[in-house]
Amino acid sequence: MSELPDGSAPVRVAVVDDEPAARERLRMLLAEAPGVALVAECRDGADALATLGALAPPAELLFLDVQMPELDGFGVLAALADLLGADRLPAVVFVTAYDEYALRAFDVSAADYLLKPFDRARFERALARGVDRARRAHEGVREAVREELRALLAHVRHAGPPDAAYAERFAVRAAGRVYFVRAADVDWLDVEGNYVRLHAGGKVHLVRGPLGAVEARLDPAAFVRVHRSAIVRVDRIASLEPYFHGEYVVTLRDGTRLTSSRSYSAGLRALLG
Questions:
Q1: Confidence (pTM)
Q2: Residue 91 dihedral angles phi and psi, to the nearest 5°
């Protein structure tokens, strides 16, 4: 990757879109744009996580399709934050065919959005904003950019795209690869440092981030928080035993025993009818 005339490196750009024609269009426009270099092109959400999670140095600007099967653009963003950390998320230009997605993306601090079909002039404006956002992360205002990304991520995790279901699976990075754990397979969750441990079928998988952020992606009808640092899947509970001061001993079907805290016991009492 060659330097620009001013000595700076081109902004590293990645494209994620499940439509081949859309990827080709963006590839052509990026090839003609100064100051950027296309470093990754991904065909869907799973491909994006595998590719971008292993990319070094990472992409700085992401053209991200919103509507993709299985894992949409908002899900990709949340999973990338799990893999890379929210502070390492690239600047984002959302690409969408629907106004409600576009306006929402813009409102939650994306660098910009492209509404399909878009012309060259609109692409160039979005690219300029995206490049500016990416470069500002290297020019003394990193914390401001981080705060914008944190706000975007919080909105994505707590609101989700319109009419979205809760997370059906979680992306886990280990041993240089990305694999998925289905939410339906998770028995319970707890905290280990900066990670959440997903306990599933006797195996443990680590997802980066606070427990509250992961909880926001879980179906509250299927999971219940029993402690500040523990969540269990409701249908994995074998028994509840009253303990001191309104607490419960929660025994799961695999034999795991957890003690609820009084502040989270209301959810368990609701299960008792």
A1: 0.58
A2: -60, 150
